[in-house]
Design a protein that fits this description.
Blueprint: E1 7-11, H1 12-15, H2 23-33, E2 48-51, H3 52-59, H4 63-76, E3 81-86, E4 97-102, E5 104-110, E6 115-120, E7 135-139, H5 149-159, E8 165-169, H6 170-176, H7 186-204, E9 207-216, E10 219-229, H8 241-248, H9 253-259, H10 266-273
Antiparallel strand pairs: 1-7, 2-6, 3-4, 5-6, 8-10, 9-10
Length: 280
């Protein structure tokens, strides 16, 4: 795997869909999504291969652990469902509806190779291939080392709004994470979901995140997230690596992909990086 080129691209319908996957299952799904080609037609006949060795390298885990996680994920992924809220488009869908579909239609586990081959479900593919209008993209490496499934989901919800501030209705977050009946008190939700997720984002992602809550009356109804990009590392001379490469004309496509801000298009990142100051 070329980690610099692995991008996860999801329709915002998927970002705000209702589903629950384990960390291992999310790593497999996201690794497969990063392989989806968007420069040519994609069908549900395409097989995507993910190996334990690749996951171990990407996530920084022990190969034996990655092997076990891959095997467990292969056994469960075919049964995992995602619930999508479809808004009226004025043409084919006359009223709001909820669609429940499968992430994958088949999963083959090749034990001797520590590898799985999987096909995405036919109904899920349009939300992964750029056929929808509103998409969110980020580097797979942004979330690969996270040990919290909620951290991965929360990170996606933040990079969907790259402005650095997002307010989320608590009921919506519970629905997206399938937590409607779990952790009913805000204290338990904070301890079991929010604090571990924020800790993982701050440790492993390009973002630094803080959060608070807003009440309506006496009840907490909204969560407020504020976040910003961490400062890029500098060389001994105080010049960022990106600035040095831009000055020398050696800023490659892989560099641009790696240095793109969460949620930023490749074209926008290229324009921004080619104009960054040489010293900051």
């Amino acid at each position: 795997m070329d980690q610099n080129r692995q991008l996860v691209v999801k329709s915002n319908h998927i970002i705000e869909a209702s589903y629950r996957l384990s960390v291992a299952e999310q790593r497999v799904i996201l690794s497969a999504i990063s392989q989806v080609r968007r420069d040519k037609p994609v069908t549900d006949e395409v097989l995507y291969s993910v190996t334990a060795a690749e996951l171990a390298q990407l996530c920084g885990t022990d190969p034996k652990t990655a092997y076990r996680d891959l095997q467990n994920a292969a056994e469960r992924l075919q049964t995992r469902r995602v619930s999508l809220l479809l808004e009226p488009d004025g043409v084919t869908i006359r009223s709001k509806r909820r669609r429940v579909t499968c992430w994958v239609q088949t999963v083959d586990y090749i034990d001797q190779e520590g590898r799985i081959e999987m096909r995405f479900g036919k109904d899920i593919l349009p939300y992964l291939t750029g056929l929808q209008r509103e998409f969110t993209r980020y580097a797979l490496s942004d979330v690969a080392k996270m040990a919290s499934a909620y951290g991965i989901r929360l990170y996606e919800l933040l990079v969907q709004w790259p402005e650095g501030h997002r307010e989320v209705a608590l009921d919506d977050l519970r629905r997206w994470l399938q937590l409607e009946d779990r952790y009913p008190s805000i204290k338990d939700l904070k301890r079991r979901v929010l604090d571990p997720a924020v800790e993982q984002i701050n440790e492993h992602s390009p973002l630094m995140l803080s959060w608070g809550q807003r009440k309506t009356g006496r009840r907490v109804t909204h969560l407020v997230f504020d976040y910003a990009l961490k400062k890029p590392p500098k060389t001994a001379s105080g010049v960022t690596d990106a600035a040095k490469k831009r000055k020398s004309g050696k800023l490659t496509d892989a560099d641009i992909t790696r240095l793109a801000r969460p949620g930023e298009t490749w074209e926008t990142a290229r324009s921004r990086l080619n104009q960054i100051p040489l010293e900051i």
